Amino acid sequence: MVGEEPNDARPEPSDRVPGAGDGSLDGPPHAGGTSGGFGAPAPWEAPPPGGPGASAPGASGASAPPPGFGPPPGAGQGFGPPPGSAPATAPGWAGAGTLPPPPAAPPGYGPPSGSGQGPRGEANPAQAVLIGLLNLSCLGLGYVFLRNWIGAAVCWVATAALLVLALPADVDGVPPGLLIGYGAFLLLAAADGARRGLRATLRLGASFRRLALPLAVVLLAVPAGGSLAYGAARDEAREQALLDRLSAADAEVKSADGLPFDKAEPLLAKALDVYEDLGTKHAGSRAGKLVPARLDAYYATVSGPYEKKTYCEAITPLKHLRGLADSFDKGLLGARPAKADEPLAHSLYECGTAALAVDTAKPTAAESLNELLGTFPKSSHATRVEPAVREAVKKRTDVLDSSSDPCVPTAELRTLRTTLRDMTDASLDGVTREAVAGVQRGDFACGTDQFKDKNYEEAIKTMTEYATAYPDSPQAAHARSIAIAAEIADEEPAAGKRLPPSEVPGGSRMILVVSNDGPGAVDLLYTGPMTGKVTLKTCTTCTKYPGPIFSQGKKIKACQGPASKYPKATLLLPAGDYHFLQKRAGTGSSYGDTKTSKVKIEPGYSYTNCLYVTSGY
What we know:
rod-shaped; 45% helix; 7 strands
């Protein structure tokens, strides 16, 4: 005994040599030394001791003793022959009377009772390979053939755990560590199964044994097929995840449709990042192959304002599309950025010309047209700029003298003049001069109309600015006269019944001497056949005269002192009715004051006028 547990060393019926100890001793031997109806034994079957068909020399027609160690059934105990019989001749030994060779293992060798395995025989490498291959199938079938149910259960649990963790397949797949661990487990199970099956006696029929090895090889397709199926499922999960990303990007583009571009741009940027990633890093995927069509849809969506003919709104989106070549993969974009050139040039032209006379336009006409002329100088739209601007100027200058409100075209001409001064193209120099002349004409026409409409405050402002802006204009003096008359009429409406004449009337002039007998300088404005303005300095020695209460009805005698005491101004006026307006400046002891008066100047007379100040009482 060498530490092995005892077992029954008798072979199974299927392992016995046919014709030996099976109740067929009287039958003739089979040809070729084989027997039984199953043909040759499979490579992993343990041959009977002594080899198949072995017989003792000289014992013709006698069947060989049954393999195995120990006496045949029914024999007496011990190693010698039964009493009265000749010694047995061992197969493979020369001569009778010699002892048979010792058995391969002592009685009692093999697995313990109830282990599910038969007795252990000689080493059978083919059988070991069979068991190992069956364990590699992930189903623990090697252990099942060995009837090692614990090992089989461990394989089933490990495989089930892998399936639970791996299914359903997702984008990331199974963690590599888990696959490595499971692979190592299968290899260990195969190695353990091969070790156990090397000398095990399988309780299987001969026909099934011949099918076992092909079955084991076929079953190797289970892990291989499962791996392929899982890989396909994982690839499909990846494809679906990429399609989901594509759908999310499409939703971003759709949600940006109709929004102002400054609000839509962040959404569009996110979609572009997804399109670029799918089209470059996942170009072979189903989602990646859809990116070109999505880019076409992106261009159509972003250029939507142009299709709707809202040209000013279309400029920024079209510039975005045209500039994508600087930030997006050029291979994916192809010729798409160039397709935005014509719509952008057209939009710049339409937006710029529409803003030519609009003071509040955003962007201004100069911004749009300068960009058109600078970016697309050879485009058909660039050649249309100068005629369009000239027509805009002419349209407004032609109506200055006939318009019911010349201030409107004048304001538009002023906006055009500002636009043209901001433009740099030399082709616009001529039309710029036309716009400047038109504004000058328009300002005078506007001030005149304001006076006629009794809008005196605006007339004063317009005509004063005109005289300041165009001092060399032939109409500068007339503009000053209208401003003076408007100022008088603002206090005395009768002074605004007619527009001051543009030329000074001829004929004789009458003298009107005006003196200042009071504190504070005085501006004296007059209008009639002639319009003008003089300023009298303050009288430093003059004081206010008492009012009605303190004067007790006494007549005020102003300007009675020496003539040199009072600042004076001499006016030479044609005969006619005049309206005067005194505008006395305030001093430290008095407030400013205004006073209107009417004077009739007749031919052949000289006139004096003394200006003084009374107190309130």
